[in-house]
Design brief:
64 residues; mainly alpha; 4 helices; 72% helix
Length: 64
């Protein structure tokens, strides 16, 4: 799934604008990564296409 489509779906479901939804999705992945010490997020990252993984795992600042 293209990153833009995924973020648009998150935005629609969360009732947020697209930039805020993207930030919130990245924050969720960042917290899950910290809580699971990377083991779970590695599996999630491997299951996603490169574009979506890059977008979701950019960190809360959007630059990681």
């Amino acid at each position: 799934m293209p990153a833009g489509l995924a973020v648009n779906r998150v935005a629609q479901r969360a009732g947020e604008d697209t930039p805020r939804a993207a930030h919130e999705a990245r924050c969720v992945m960042e917290v899950v990564g910290e809580a699971a010490q990377g083991s779970l997020t590695d599996k999630i990252r491997q299951s996603l296409d490169d574009e979506l993984a890059s977008s979701l795992f950019a960190g809360s600042t959007g630059s990681a």
